[in-house]
Amino acid sequence: MSSTNTVEVKPSPLGGKGTFTTRACEAGDVVFSLDRPLIATLDRARIADTCSWCFSWTDLPGLSGAGINQTAKVNWCSGCKKVKYCSKRCQSQSWKAIHKRECKELASQAEPLPNTVFAVIQMMEGLSVGDQRYSSILELDAHRDDFEKAGGQRWDSMQLMATTAMSVMRAKGVNVAGESATMSMCVLMCNSSRLVTPTFDPLGLVLDPAIARLNHSCDPNAVMVFDGPRLAARALAPIREGDEVLISYIDNTAPYGVRQGELQSQYFFDCKCTKCQLGNKAAQDAFLDPTSDFEERIKLIDDLLPKLVDDPAWPRHVLGESKHEQRLSALQFYAYSYLDSPDAARPTRDAASLRKAIAIIRNTGVWPLSRQPLPALYRQYAIACLEGKRYNEAFIAMLRLHALIDPVVYPQAHHPVRVVHAWSLATLSKAIGSDPTSEFCRALQSQGVDLSMLFLALLFEVVEQVEKSHGSKSLFGQTVGGALQAMMEPGGELDSQFSLMGVSREQWPKIVEDRIKELWPKVLAFAENDDIAAQIDEAVA
Ligand SMILES: C[S@@+](CC[C@H](N)C(=O)[O-])C[C@H]1O[C@@H](n2cnc3c(N)ncnc32)[C@H](O)[C@@H]1O
């Protein structure tokens, strides 16, 4: 597979090998890219609605798919009926690369295989035909003994999956030793990354020796972005020539104990990055000072405390020994118990229970909006609202995320997650604003929030950042660029509005800029004012 090569792999001070730049990079530069990872398999839930070669996803839920024009239809491979493709071209490329080796076996399976088993089979097949690219996978850290020592349900299910993969290989006449299937499974578990859409919705998993040589930091200098099967590591900040490229394996905006717990249990290391060195004292872990009625506000959590301490997840939430710290720990535990795993494509909690959890946490008065998992809960709540067609509530949640939370959680304006949120809010504003006579629109208007202007302001923001976040030629970049062009071209919304007002094209930028400047403080005031937002929300619900 071709790649942009401005990096080299060599021993890392963090342990094992790492990836280092061979030239200095600016923020937003592509540090490293791949046309397609060596192994990429879809989650079982995505097999029926996603092209197995280019990963066009045809069943996008509300927020995640917002605005990405995926009109593709996918059809089963007529041979195995276990994978789908969006075109003859994708089918034929997949056939040449991998599918000719697996179609017959897949056809004989009653159920689609879990993607981890599928990935291990692809790995073993690649090795069995002597493909050199696969042999470098075996040089990766496997943490085999660590997995076995940790034992439990995970180890049992890893062994079961390895055995299943081995039986499929044996049925094809390839004799694979049990230990090598187990090793392949371990390599996969600690070296694979999530395959996601350009808007970060989970689709499956990928494994490629080049990606697997990226080490972790909770304060990363790069982030991985997908564009269909293409993958790029983009610089979040300037990176000097010779510096190590570091991505985050986990949600690096989570509190210290949660991050350390996840890294230790899945990757078997203690992170010692600059952020982790601050421990619970890092800004993102801070709480607000309790108010005088805090005792009363925290009552519900106090009642939960004695039940939590025996839970296996409790240790990663412990913030200290004092009564106050124990209460905050219980509150954090409670908040995380409402959060779906980042791998869940759709929220399993309904909007009402997520809303209740958010309200309880906020009501304590000590939880900053930007402290995890509150931002993640807002995001899941927005998605749950969209799934339930509760657009107004979704709008308020997304507005909070974009205006109040993201600038703190993702300080870089071009951070791809922040840009995707801005785009989702833009498309929501456009959809809701398409009926200006609705009660919700009128209520917003009375607060000075004009949705068509907000759409434009957000669109400008996304277009300004997209070259650095995703690349303007990517599917996402083309979608947002196309939306702006449609507004500006003769007959477009902006063109029509300004023509009516007799404004010439040369005057557009200044007028739009002035209007956005005028709008933004009102948007912020609306987002910040819980009472107004809640009243409108309740009234219209
Ligand atoms: C995906 S691999 C990264 C490449 C790995 N260093 C190698 O040589 O193959 C993940 C493993 O690298 C190690 N690792 C990654 N980031 C680390 C860090 N910040 N500190 C210590 N070890 C790290 C851990 O052993 C982890 O399980």
What's the end-to-end separation, in Å?
A: 51 Å
User: What is the percent of helical residues?
Assistant: 40-55%
Strand content: 5-15%
Mean pLDDT: 90
Strands side by side in the biggest sheet: 1-4-12-11
Shape: globular
Secondary structure: number of strands: 13
Low-confidence stretches: none
Largest sheet: 4 strands, antiparallel
Radius of gyration: 25 Å
**Structural class computed from helices and strand pairing:** alpha+beta
Cofactors, ions, other ligands: S-adenosylmethionine
Number of helices: 23
Q: Can you describe what's shown?
A:
One of its GO terms (molecular function) is zinc ion binding. Keywords: Metal-binding, Zinc, Zinc-finger. Residues 5-250 form the SET domain. Pfam families: SET, zf-MYND. InterPro entries: H3K4_H4K5_MeTrfase (IPR050869), SET_dom (IPR001214), SET_dom_sf (IPR046341), Znf_MYND (IPR002893). This protein has 541 residues and is α+β, with helices and mostly antiparallel strands. Among the domains are: 288-367, no CATH class; 372-541, no CATH class. It contains 23 helices and 13 strands. The strands form five sheets. Strands 1-4-12-11 form a four-stranded antiparallel sheet, with no helix packed on it. The chain has a three-stranded antiparallel sheet with strand order 5-9-8. A hairpin with a 2-residue loop joins strand 11 and strand 12 (230-235). Helix 3 crosses helix 6 and helix 17 (416-433) runs antiparallel to helix 19. The longest helix is centred in the N-terminal third of the chain and has 21 residues, at 88-108. The model has no long low-confidence stretch (mean pLDDT 90). It binds S-adenosylmethionine. S-adenosylmethionine is lined by residues 12, 14-18, 140-141, 143, 190-191, 212-213, 215-217, 267-269, 271.
